[in-house]
Design brief:
266 residues; 11 helices; 3% strand
Length: 266
């Protein structure tokens, strides 16, 4: 297995072409992805597409009634935006046009709250238009583009840390969804999609390098405490298998984070 060039994502950073039966974790060098510090972060839509090749996931069952509450806290809004973009991919997989349009508008509203509205206003309109036409492949591309546009705009505003929180929010929501689907009908080959210790380590390092003020944000504190609990459950380079109980624990931990980000438990 490759070292720093092989990792498997859950959603969002979301979410790899595979056959219907997987013997080994997929090599993300084969798919569209971004490389950050030599860590391969897959394009979210590609990770979700692979799940369709593993069977017929109940995507509608993974949709949330509400994406959560914008509190005005910039760290929370960035994390929430990441989870909402991940929800967009889920709604596309469910082919739920109305939900896709709602999420497209949510993305625009959250982007406005952190001063990057102009970066996604065209994408948001295109998401709504293409969802009305049921052009799902194009909607996926627009959500991919929206994610990159938001992060790019944040970097132009010297908000690299918030851009990382958007990616992290998408990954957390994606992990929640992936573990939920795997847990419904556990198979070892599906569980191998969770083999991503390098990516978790990458996010942990990024959080540790953020300004002290941001590190003290309650949500960031909670995530920093939770990632070290998730990491050992994801398997290691020596080929340790990910068990059904591991999947359940990861789902519980990621669900707690999604709840905290969406403010539904506060």
């Amino acid at each position: 297995m490759h070292t720093m060039k092989k990792t498997i994502l859950a959603l969002c950073a979301a979410t790899v072409g595979l056959t219907s039966t997987i013997a080994q974790p997929a090599d993300l060098q084969d798919f569209p992805a971004a490389s950050v510090d030599n860590v391969i972060v897959p394009v979210p839509s590609e990770v979700f597409i692979v799940l369709d090749k593993l069977g017929s996931p109940n995507w509608r069952g993974q949709l949330r009634d509400s994406v959560g509450k914008n509190t005005g806290n910039r760290a929370q809004v960035a994390l929430l935006l990441g989870t909402v973009i991940a929800d967009g991919f889920i709604a596309v997989q469910a082919q739920d046009a109305e939900r896709v349009k709602e999420i497209g508008r949510d993305v625009l509203n959250l982007a406005s709250a952190i001063n990057v509205r102009d970066a996604v206003i065209t994408r948001s309109k295109s998401i709504v238009d293409k969802a009305e036409k049921r052009n799902w492949s194009e909607v996926r591309r627009e959500f991919d583009g929206a994610l990159q546009d938001v992060k790019g705009a944040m970097r132009e505003l010297d908000d690299e840390d918030l851009a990382q929180l958007v990616s992290l929010g998408g990954w957390i929501r994606g992990t929640q969804v992936l573990t939920s689907l795997i847990g419904q009908e556990f198979r070892q080959d599906k569980a191998e999609l969770l083999h991503q210790p390098i990516l978790v380590s990458f996010f942990s390092r990024r959080l540790d390098s953020m300004p002290k003020k941001l590190q003290k944000d309650p949500l960031v504190v909670q995530i920093r405490k939770t990632l070290p609990k998730i990491s050992p459950l994801l398997g290691t380079e020596d080929g340790t298998k990910i068990s059904q109980d591991d999947v359940k624990k990861i789902n519980q931990l990621s669900s707690e984070l999604v709840m905290a980000i969406s403010q539904q438990n506060r």
